[in-house]
Amino acid sequence: MPTTPTQGHVVVAPDKFKGTLEGAEVAARIAAGIRRAAPGAEVRELPVADGGEGTLAAALAAGFTRVAVKVAGPTGLPVDAALAVKGDTAVVELAQASGLARLPGGRTAPLAAGSFGVGQLIAKAVSLGVERVVLGLGGSACTDGGAGMVQALGVGLYGADGAELAPGGASLRRLERLDLGSLADGLTGVEIVVACDVDNPLLGPRGAAAVYGPQKGADAEDLVILEEGLTRWADTVHAVTGQDYRNNPGAGAAGGVGFAALALLGATMRPGIELLLELLGFDEAVRGARLVVTGEGCLDAQTLHGKAPAGVAAAATRAGVRVAAVAGRLELSESEWRTAGFAAAVALTDLAEQPGESMTRAGELAEVAGERLASELLAG
């Protein structure tokens, strides 16, 4: 039976369901289910992200304008990428240029993959006259310490023979000279803000190579090579700038792109979901709301440590609005998700009739989840 909601709108603010649905698709499906169960409800769709993959899509759904750019992919081959612009702010998603999904044929290149395309996206944003660039890190294919990114912005990296270094983390072992060129002048008046949820340093057992290298195809020998390259990179940057950022939290993010952003772009780092909610106007969207529905592919222990649904729940709770979650899988106990601030949680796996349907019928089941939440939480 359709319910009759009391006053107040509903905000549907999920992250993507990785491997099945983009954030905007999840939001649309959940919203459709809510509208079916509560025809009188005003439902506003506001897909979110935490700075990783899906950040660009979330910005576009929130009214940013897409700017197409052809840039170098992680192995140097050109890829069609995009950034998002609204007013004086641009959103750059690293994964658009240097993400694992951009690897030709899906073949990893742990030693040679680079971040040059990320720098090209930043350069395009700056050329548009923006005053702030929000750089979302996540899903990177490279472990080059952000060297490629700054090369695209005019920095020179040279070996003993005077030749420019080839892309990738392995070549950093041969770095002899760093020329910052006109980097600072090119970024004058532009604030770089990094959306980042990891606190890993650049080097060591918790560093970019050791922790994330295996995800990018690096074997034990590769990890030694990458660690040597990143060490040489950090030492050289320190010698040239007089500043040492290798141990800063987040320096190891995205294969060390976080390090270059801090050390050479003068970037500041903020928790990804906090920054994105601000950018997407979440506080305004939730004002006067009756319910917020968020979610992601898997609601688990990691969710509680800065992932998008936890950030949405915290922000909704501060606004005095109940929040519910829809997830592909639910690996938290009821006491855990209630303690995290959720009034209800629905898993697609619990709605599926057959194993695997939570993936193959994710959209349909997300609508069913929306219906169920509306019936439970929007009754007059």
Automatic annotation (TrEMBL):
Keyword hit for Kinase: yes
Presence of the UniProt keyword Kinase in the record: yes
Recorded superkingdom: Bacteria
Gene3D superfamilies: Glycerate kinase, domain 1, Glycerate kinase, domain 2
GO molecular function: glycerate kinase activity
Keywords: Kinase, Transferase
InterPro entries: Glyc_kinase_flavodox-like_fold, Glycerate_kinase, Glycerate_kinase_RE-like, Glycerate_kinase_sf
E.C. no: 2.7.1.31
Family: Belongs to the glycerate kinase type-1 family.
UniProt-recorded name of the protein: Glycerate kinase
Organism from which the protein derives: Kitasatospora paracochleata
Lineage: Bacteria, Bacillati, Actinomycetota, Actinomycetes, Kitasatosporales
